[in-house]
Write a structure and sequence with these properties.
Largest sheet: 8 strands, parallel
Strand content: 15-25%
Strand order of the largest sheet: 7-6-5-4-3-2-1-8
Helix content: 25-40%
Mean pLDDT: 95
Shape: globular
Low-confidence stretches: 1-8
Number of domains: 2
Structural class: alpha/beta
Radius of gyration: 22 Å
CATH topology of the largest domain: TIM Barrel
CATH superfamily of the largest domain: Aldolase class I
Bound molecules: alpha-D-galactopyranose
């Protein structure tokens, strides 16, 4: 009892907080030195929603064409997306013509991109946005368009000449692990040599895993973000599998993330067809906890006000973009409730509680605040705000308090704990 009282003395608690500040401030592994992605990239990427639709005759409004990207650019500019932080408008696979030009350069499909990528980049830049493009380290892209193998320098130069600001580099059709690794490295160096600031988004670890465990420290030195796991689909099953992969590999991947380099659990599918409201809340909350790039793949021309408000939620985006740049992790799983936490600047913490039980109604879960943030999240006391599913100020809590929270099936309650 006496010892407990001593441990609760303000000086002792403040000393602990200081120690926590020092420990959490240690930088992660060295990042790609291009000064980019100091917080996770935010933007829009066409793949999950529009895939490889090249039939502009039948589906002029949803085929991969300059018109689609110009419409999205216009909306990103006018509907609050850019102001919320979504700046990168990214083209995925299927933008290319089937062959390189006579000088060996990649070229856009002339029917679907009649003005070419450079003119699209100018348009996107005129809206205050940045343009992303897609290519592949191997002989072909995943959809069968020309690959960059043997052409890394010329492709990097072409993208820089066009004014591209991000490259998603896929890993299909690579004939050996050596080609895969060397290719990802060589393209990183080639991009740097262009002198243009180009965010480099890799899928290197995803394609490495079948051969051997990726060397994440090395990957971080070459890429600004990297996909680890399968493509996201518009389904709860897909979101669950990404979360399960991430938590079961967190010892390998969490410490590697930090300013300049991030684990990429793939696109946000909020605003589409497959996720219930609670599941959309779960994706947004957990992508914030995971310090994930926020690349939406949806149709900004037709999106519900509710999904838009969730994607533009400033408090949640602030957690995702927290400048400390520490990725969160799963703290525990108990009775189908997962508790995740993420350290933030100023000794604050984000905490997400996910109810994975898919039968029954909302469930109560009680957590002791002393179990959060290695015991430091609420020392000696803190102010707690619920950010999702709706914002509400829960108030002042002491270190020794319990917190009882109600969570919908497949939903998440996201909290922010601020040290007083
Ligand atoms: C792979 C990638 C996806 C997408 C497609 C395009 O599957 O993982 O994100 O880029 O290729 O073909």
């Amino acid at each position: 009892m006496k010892l407990k009282n001593q441990l609760l003395q303000p000086c002792f608690l403040l000393a602990l907080r200081f120690l926590a500040l020092v420990l959490w401030s240690f930088p992660g592994a060295r990042a790609l030195d291009n000064g980019l992605a100091l917080t996770p990239t935010m933007g829009w990427l066409h793949w999950e929603r529009f895939m490889c639709n090249v039939d502009c005759q039948e589906e002029p409004d949803s085929c991969i064409s300059e018109k689609l990207f110009m419409q999205m650019a216009e909306l990103m500019h006018s509907d609050g997306w850019k102001d919320a932080g979504y700046k990168y408008l990214c083209i995925d696979d299927c933008w290319m013509a089937p062959k390189r030009d006579s000088k060996g350069r990649l070229q856009a499909d002339p029917k679907r991109f009649p003005n070419g990528i450079q003119s699209l980049a100018n348009y996107v830049h005129s809206k205050g946005l940045k343009l992303g493009i897609y290519a592949d380290v191997g002989n072909k892209t995943c959809a069968g368009f020309p690959g960059s193998f043997g052409h890394y320098d010329i492709d990097a130069k072409t993208f820089a000449d066009w004014g591209v600001d991000l490259l998603k580099f896929d890993g299909c059709y690579c004939d050996s692990v050596e080609h895969l690794e060397n290719g990802y490295k060589r393209m990183s160096l080639a991009l740097n040599r262009t002198g243009r600031s180009i965010v480099y988004s890799c899928e290197w670890p995803l394609y490495m895993w079948p051969f051997r465990e990726p060397n994440y420290t090395e990957i971080r030195q070459y890429c600004n973000h990297w996909r680890n796991f399968q493509d996201v689909y518009d389904s709860w099953q897909s979101i669950k599998s990404i979360l399960a992969w991430t938590s079961s590999n967190q010892k390998r991947i969490v410490h590697v993330a930090g300013p300049g380099g991030w684990n990429d659990p793939d696109m946000l599918v909020i605003g589409n067809f497959g996720l219930s409201w609670d599941q959309q809340v779960t994706q947004m909350a957990l992508w914030a906890i995971m310090a994930a790039p926020l690349l939406m793949s949806n149709d900004l021309r037709q999106i519900s006000p509710q999904a838009k408000a969730l994607l533009q939620n400033k408090d949640v985006i602030a957690i995702n973009q927290d400048p400390l740049g520490k990725q969160g992790y799963r703290l525990r799983k108990e009775d189908n409730i997962e508790v995740w936490e993420r350290p933030l600047t100023d000794l604050a913490w984000a905490v997400a509680m996910v109810n994975l039980q898919e039968i029954g109604g909302p469930r109560f879960h009680t957590i002791s605040l002393a179990s959060l943030g290695q015991g430091m999240a609420c020392v000696p006391d803190c102010t707690i705000t619920q950010l999702l599913p709706v914002k509400s100020k829960l108030g002042f809590y002491e270190w020794t308090s319990d917190l009882k929270i109600k969570i919908n099936p497949t939903g998440t309650v996201l909290l922010r704990l601020a040290a007083n």
